[in-house]
Every structure is written in C-alpha cells, then in structure tokens.
Amino acid sequence: MMEIRIANQDDLDWLVMEDDVTTDWASRCIRQNEYILATGDGNPLGFLRFSLFWGRFPYMDMIRVRPASRKNGFGTAMLKRWEEETRRQGHQLLMTSSQEDEPEPQAWHTRNGFSRSGQLTFGKQQAVPEIFFVKDL
Questions:
Q1: What is the dihedral of CA 63, 56, 135, 44, to 10 degrees?
Q2: Domain CATH code at residue 71
Q3: pLDDT in tens, 53-81
Q4: Terminal C-alpha separation, the chain
Q5: Average pLDDT for residues 108-114, to the nearest whole number?
Q6: What's 8's DSSP letter?
Q7: What are phi and psi of 98, to 5 degrees?
C-alpha cells in the first residue's frame, strides 16, 4: 500500500543515503518539513525535496524514486502532495529544473503540467545547461 507523507527524523539515514546530501543538510530539511516521502508496505521508495527559491517560490530541488518502483505513480503522488501543501500555504507557482541532457525528467515535468521557462549555465560547475520549469497552481 502506498503512503505519501512528510519525512521525519526516523527517515534521516535512508534520506542521506538516497539523496546524496550531508546528514546536517538532510536533518535541516526534515526540520523544515522540506521532504515528502513515498512508502510502500512501510518501506521508503522515493522522496521529493523542496525549498523556496529566493525565499519566495516553491522549488522542487530533487525527486527520486528507487528504480524498481518507478512508473508506479509514486513520483506523481509526491508531486500532488507537494502541490496541496504549497496551495495550502498560499503559493500560486511551482518551480523545478533538470539538465538539458535529461529528456525523461523533462517529459515527466511536462506531463505533470510544468512549462519550460528558461535555462542557465553554471560555468565549470555544470557545463550542461539547467532547464527551468514553472507550473501555475
């Protein structure tokens, strides 16, 4: 059975392993309720991490579903939960991005109502342009 919920401190070790961030950063995000977790039969299968771009616009930093659980609706369910949370907080726009050479994530964003909004390059830090997407709520 699928459950979509806000992550808590009990999820910290799994999130650090799956999200490839430091323990301090993941713990901070948990305290700020910036992780949404997808579970199946009580086991974590994916997460969505977000923040506020410029302290103002909800921005999906990362969404990841374990490979064996992809294409089962977990990602879309986490996105819907995030949309509900941001609407409840009075936000009217969502943002996200993916690298230009990642066609599958771009297609997923588009299927879920996001529109391409622009791109940035980050010099030596990331040679491939980052494509930004927005979605009106």
A1: 20
A2: 3.40.630.30
A3: 999 999 999 999 998 888 888 999 999 99
A4: 28
A5: 96
A6: -
A7: -155, 160
Cα(35)–Cα(9) distance, integer angstroms: 11
Residues in the chain: 137
Residue 123, SS3 per DSSP: helix
Structure tokens at 52: 């506020």
Identify the pLDDT of residue 49.
98
98 and 83 fall within a common domain? no
Q: Where are the alpha helices (DSSP H) in 6-121?
A: 12-19, 23-31, 74-88, 103-111
pTM for this model (two decimals): 0.92
Amino acid type, 17: M
- For residue 72, the model assigns a pLDDT of 85
| The two three-digit tokens of residue 110, written as one number | 């588009």
Whether residue 125 is contained in a domain is answered as yes
Looking at residues 32-61, what average pLDDT do you find?
Answer: 95
**Distance, CA of 104 to CA of 98 (rounded, Å):** 10
The domain of 118 spans 92-137
- Torsion angle of the four alpha carbons 45, 111, 101, 124, in this order, in degrees rounded to the nearest 10: -80
Evaluate if residue 41 carries a pLDDT over 90.
Answer: no
Q: Count structural domains, the chain.
A: 2
